[in-house]
């Protein structure tokens, strides 16, 4: 196997006009360059290159189109007030990418090489990191199975690609509380399935329920467990936390929930502040019971795209539960301020999470 040690760089001769920082949306605009690397059974990962952002050409028989053999990641680059560019815990993304790869029978990507590719691409397109509070450069690494063969077997050929997008808030609500519909009919994942992997099918499977929730005025869907429809899993674009009587609870990782990096960081921050935090099986009934008895103090979601998103209302089988009068709670706000404070270099980074791009 030939290791991909050097990244060839071809710069664009036709840079694009950058969007206004107050009109970014999420994942709408893309930077001038992208990273690509190929895999073949014979050569391993090879031909690492940064090229002008462009469409890719694939054979219509490429396995990704038919059998969904693909995984992705999401991380962000931030610019500090002093002009430094930094990434948030990129090692965690590449560790998780490789766990997803393993589940989807995709060969691993050397972690160091993945991080190096992100750093190089971010350096080249650093002028695309948008100004403005809460804005950042969203980085989307992904792997696709490219072998043109319709037999149902793991592909022998892949592409690993990184694209980047200057983004604002993920939800139209910004950092205001979102309304979430608790899904009782459809399920996202089952233990033993691929729920823990960051793979496209998990997201496609959620679209129908999300559309129905949107039609009723809810931003997202809260998924319950696939077997009994009783236990809380995640929101699909974020993990969830509930503060009940002074303690913060989040569903324990069980194989069907995404092992979120913001989830992990949130738990670390709460422990650092001596706020009790418990990871365990959580039923939707106990959350509603805590709401009915006035013990449910806050709910919020965590994610790279969503950051910390307060939840102002749940709807489960038609019963609405308004949380904290629909306002942002104290812990949610403290988490948002501290996490973004660390990410944008305004606060000390006690966990050494940030990695500078130089
Ligand atoms: C992320 O937070 O990076 C995600 O992957 C969530 C979503 C945009 C799919």
UniProtKB/TrEMBL annotation:
It catalyses: L-valine + 2-oxoglutarate = 3-methyl-2-oxobutanoate + L-glutamate; L-isoleucine + 2-oxoglutarate = (S)-3-methyl-2-oxopentanoate + L-glutamate; L-leucine + 2-oxoglutarate = 4-methyl-2-oxopentanoate + L-glutamate. GO terms for molecular function: L-isoleucine-2-oxoglutarate transaminase activity; L-leucine-2-oxoglutarate transaminase activity; L-valine-2-oxoglutarate transaminase activity. This is Branched-chain-amino-acid aminotransferase. InterPro entries: Aminotrans_IV (IPR001544), Aminotrans_IV_CS (IPR018300), Aminotransferase-like (IPR036038), B_amino_transII (IPR005786), BCAT-like_C (IPR043132), BCAT-like_N (IPR043131), BCAT_family (IPR033939). Gene3D superfamilies: 3.30.470.10, D-amino Acid Aminotransferase, subunit A, domain 2 (3.20.10.10). Its EC number is 2.6.1.42. It comes from Paenibacillus lycopersici. PROSITE patterns: AA_TRANSFER_CLASS_4. Belongs to the class-IV pyridoxal-phosphate-dependent aminotransferase family. Its cofactor is pyridoxal 5'-phosphate. It is an enzyme of class 2 (transferase). Pfam families: Aminotran_4 (PF01063). NCBIfam families: ilvE_II, PRK13357.1. Keywords: Amino-acid biosynthesis, Aminotransferase, Branched-chain amino acid biosynthesis, Pyridoxal phosphate, Transferase.
């Amino acid at each position: 196997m030939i290791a991909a040690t050097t990244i060839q760089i071809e710069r664009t001769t036709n840079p694009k006009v950058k969007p206004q920082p107050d009109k970014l949306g999420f994942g709408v605009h893309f930077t001038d360059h992208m990273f690509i690397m190929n895999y073949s059974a014979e050569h391993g990962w090879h031909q690492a290159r940064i090229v002008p952002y462009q469409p890719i050409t694939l054979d219509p028989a490429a396995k990704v189109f038919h059998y969904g053999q693909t995984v992705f990641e999401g991380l962000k680059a931030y610019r500090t007030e002093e002009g430094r560019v930094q990434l948030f815990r990129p090692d965690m993304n590449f560790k998780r990418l490789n766990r997803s790869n393993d589940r989807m029978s995709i060969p691993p990507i050397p972690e160091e090489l993945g991080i190096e590719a992100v750093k190089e691409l971010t350096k080249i397109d650093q002028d695309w990191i948008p100004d403005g509070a809460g804005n950042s450069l969203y980085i989307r690494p992904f792997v696709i199975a490219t072998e043109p063969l319709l037999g149902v077997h793991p592909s022998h050929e892949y592409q690993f690609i990184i694209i980047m997008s200057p983004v604002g808030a993920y939800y139209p609500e910004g950092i205001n509380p979102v309304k979430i519909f608790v899904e009782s009919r459809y399920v996202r994942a089952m233990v033993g399935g691929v729920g823990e992997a960051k793979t496209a099918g998990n997201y496609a499977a959620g679209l129908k329920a999300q559309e129905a929730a949107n039609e009723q005025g809810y931003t997202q869907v809260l998924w319950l467990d696939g077997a009994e429809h009783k236990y809380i899993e995640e929101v699909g674009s974020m993990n969830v936390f509930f503060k009940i009587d002074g303690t913060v609870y989040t569903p324990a990782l069980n194989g069907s929930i995404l092992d979120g990096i913001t989830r992990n960081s949130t738990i670390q921050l709460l422990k650092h502040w001596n706020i009790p935090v418990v990871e365990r099986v959580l039923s939707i009934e106990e959350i509603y019971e805590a709401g009915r008895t006035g013990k449910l103090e806050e709910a919020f979601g965590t994610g790279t795209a969503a950051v910390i998103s307060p939840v102002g209302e749940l709807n489960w089988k038609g019963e609405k539960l308004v949380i904290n009068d629909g306002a942002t709670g104290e812990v949610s706000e403290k988490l948002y301020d501290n996490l973004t404070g660390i990410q944008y270099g305004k606060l000390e980074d006690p966990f050494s999470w940030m990695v500078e791009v130089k």
